[in-house]
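Many introductory courses stop at the sequence. We go one step further.
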Amino acid sequence: GMIGLERARKHRPAGFRTYMLVCMGAALTMLLSQYESYMLHHVWAEKAAEIGIRTDVSRFGAQVINGIGFLGAGTILVTGQQKVKGLTTAAGLWASACMGLAVGAGFGYYSLSSVFITQYKGAELGTIALVSNVLRELTALLAAPWLVRYFGRLAPIAVGGATSMDTTLPVITRYSGKEFVVVAMVHGMTVDFCVPFLVTFFCTI
């Protein structure tokens, strides 16, 4: 997201939301590949052996890299002065996708609540919590105008959750108004602070 902010400030083709969507999409793809591998080797093991299904989970990540290649190529332009522009943006998109794959593979956590839920309730519920958080954040990023129109200017802040103080803040500022920036930041910090206590409490009752 921070790479996207810098690119948007310089008026490049890909901005904040583009980088966020690329990273989150790559992370979700890697999570799905790991889910498929787990299910085929445990829950669906008998049926997979009977049918003869074999899969390579790395194929998911490979398709992300291929897709980003096309997306990055669209940002590279040759000007009338025969100067090439957009290489940094394309490289940034590629790096953002790779970071998303790394996060999805477990080299970092995207959602603190999913970490706690995994510890207390198992990997299955932890994965569901992570995917739900990703989808909720995507909703805040993409549907902010609709949320403001039908539910009021506080709606994107509520949907953004803890990310209302960072990731979704630019979108909230744009559609809810600058007067809601302080509200969004306080809301995000409060939710973020409460996560370890509330999630732990509800997982232990």
